[in-house]
Design goal:
The structure holds two protein chains of two kinds. By secondary structure, chain A is an alpha+beta fold. Chain A is built from three helices and eleven strands; from the N terminus they run αααβββββββββββ. By secondary structure, chain B is of the alpha+beta class. The relative contact order of chain B is 0.12. Classes of the chains: A alpha+beta, B alpha+beta.
């Protein structure tokens, strides 16, 4: 008995140390993961501002006598008449040197084995940086509802309330395990405000149904670097046929004008 | 007596190394991301038929290996969309040998590529605006043996192209809404809504400001420069509104404060750097009417209550 207690006393510090290091590394790892994503977007040498030079061979075939630097920002009609073009990269050259960067991480969500009445929630992170242009917009659409190769579908969610279902543009509460479907919610500074609580979801617009993509991030600010989290939730019922369901969710990021 | 257990330090080191290895391998697996950037994100081109101009776009893959496909699409309601009858303009072409419209190309992690797009409308191209998007779309990862959603992304550069023989197309800007409350409670925020429409034949740039002047002072708020496309009718937003982070609001300006008396809100809107100037005024009268109403109700109640009480006393005395 005594020797076992001694063994336990000896092992205890190691276990505590192990837990401590695991915790620290895990925390650090997560932080590093986020900062690395930023670093990739913002501090890569590829992101150096290329101000003022819109790198055109501006009419070299049609107007070989003009220097490229003459073109940028010119608005004079007289110059247009002689050269035949005016090329600006953005209003008042605000886009000069600007870069629009967008990232989605991870690239794939595995829902694992879908069990009846057991909601599965997974999350992804969206990051956007817009430089000097006036804001940005990020929209989303799925190619189809989660479907098997045989065409069996998990329907897009209508959320809990049959009288006030969630729509493509309006989220509503979805936390019952018997409300089946597939949907998403957004969280972040520049995401739509209709995701009032953590259980508010919307269905994805579907390209197969010719739905218009839904706006999920929007800003009117310049020099914005914003991040948002998208949670995907899927719940199936007992009558849902067994199979491997899949779809493609497509994001589109454009600068504001 | 010799300790049969390894030293604390050696085990701690071993644990640390193992955890580092575990976490490093996890990191590389978890770091899978789609991450593309494009520069410039917006271009504006006014071009004469028969003239040729090229623009270089820089695309950088900051994520994992990606298959990207360049597309030429329309730009409708702020989105890259193609009407069913849309046929990409043959006079907008890619000059690169390794890139072509609708042809997938591999981008290595960290790779930067330059894509040169040429615009050369011939004399038969109608004079008007062509709002297009140079769109780069990634191919989603292949299917796995489980239920899953995979992601793809598109990032684009908006190309606002005006084909014009003489560079002069009719530009006309109209204020379709300039709304302020006529009567404002002193403690409410002042909300101003401004919408402008482009009713001309080419895109218009707008700048301007909203000025609030009262008996004690004056404050100006700049309107964010915006580009209105043909037929577009859009909210104009002030810098103040953007900084305050009220993105969802349709208001151009929401100004909290205490207001008392007469105020004038002046809209000065400039189209295309002053070629067109619109100035409009609205008057606001502010007073604490909500508090006044409450006081009035309370006083009325007291007035009604007081005589009855007096009557009761009289009865007792009798």
């Amino acid at each position: 008995m005594k020797s076992n207690r001694q063994k336990l006393r000896t092992i205890c510090p190691y276990l505590i140390l192990l837990l401590l290091i695991s915790f620290l590394l895990n925390t650090k790892y997560n932080i590093l993961n986020i900062s690395l994503a930023f670093a990739e977007d913002m501090s890569s040498q590829n992101f150096k501002l290329q101000g003022g030079d819109f790198t055109m061979t501006s009419g070299s075939k049609a107007s070989p006598n003009y220097k490229l630097s003459d073109v940028v920002g010119e608005t004079a009609v007289g110059s247009y008449t002689s050269k035949g073009y005016i090329l600006n990269a953005g209003y008042l050259n605000t886009a000069a040197g600007s870069i629009l960067a967008f990232s989605v991480s991870p690239t794939l969500i595995d829902f694992g084995s879908l069990l009846p009445n057991s909601p599965v929630v997974r999350s992804i992170t969206l990051t956007i940086a817009n430089g000097d242009v006036l804001g940005y917009r990020v929209k989303v659409a799925e190619d189809q509802p989660l479907s098997t190769n045989l065409g069996v579908e998990i329907p897009d969610t209508k959320c809990d309330s049959p009288t006030q279902p969630c729509t493509l543009a309006q989220g509503s509460s979805w936390n019952q395990e018997t409300s089946y479907g597939f949907g998403y919610r957004m969280a972040g500074k520049t995401t739509p405000s209709d995701f009032l609580n953590s259980d508010y979801y919307r269905p994805f617009p579907s390209k197969r149904k010719n739905d218009s993509p839904a706006l999920v991030m929007q800003s009117n600010a310049r020099k914005a670097t914003d991040q948002a989290t998208m949670n995907l939730r899927v719940v199936v019922g007992r009558s849902q046929p067994v199979g491997q369901y899949h779809n493609v969710i497509h994001f589109t990021a454009l600068a504001g004008i | 007596m010799k300790n049969k257990y390894p030293s604390f330090l050696s085990i701690a080191s071993a644990v640390f190394i193992i955890l580092c290895l575990v976490f490093n391998s996890a990191q590389s697996a978890n770091a899978q991301s789609l991450s593309l950037s494009i520069s410039p994100p917006v271009i504006e081109l006014i071009i004469k038929p028969g003239v040729s101009v090229t623009q270089r776009f820089t695309v950088v893959n900051n994520g994992d290996l990606a298959i990207v496909t360049p597309h030429l699409t329309g730009y409708i309601n702020g989105s890259p969309e193609n009407p069913s009858d849309y046929i990409p303009e043959p006079w907008i072409s890619i000059l690169n040998s390794d890139f072509a419209w609708d042809k997938p190309t591999l981008l290595q992690p960290g790779e930067s590529r330059q894509i040169v797009v040429r615009f050369n409308p011939d004399e038969t191209v109608p004079e008007t605006d062509y709002n297009r998007v140079f769109l780069l779309t990634t191919t989603p990862p292949p299917s796995a043996e489980s239920s899953k959603s995979s992601f793809s992304s598109s990032i684009g550069s908006i190309m606002l192209i005006t084909v014009s023989e003489n560079g002069v197309l009719s530009k006309e800007l109209k204020v379709t809404q300039f709304q302020v409350p006529q009567i404002l409670d002193s403690f409410d925020s002042l909300e101003v809504r401004v919408r402008a429409a482009n009713i001309g034949k080419t895109l218009v740039h707008t700048i301007g400001q909203l000025t609030l002047s009262g008996s004690v002072g004056k404050a100006s708020y700049s309107l964010m420069p915006q580009t209105l496309l043909i037929g577009e009718n859009r909210n104009l937003i002030t810098d103040f509104q953007v900084v305050s982070g009220q993105n969802d609001s349709n208001a151009s300006l929401i100004l909290p404060g205490f207001y008392l008396g007469k105020y004038t809100v002046t809209l000065s809107l400039l189209g295309d750097e002053g070629e067109q100037k619109i100035i409009q005024n609205q008057t606001v009268y502010a007073f604490p009417w909500k508090a006044g109403l409450v006081c009035l109700i309370v006083l009325t109640g007291l007035w009604g209550f007081y005589p009855r009480k007096k009557k009761v006393r009289t009865v007792k005395k009798a």
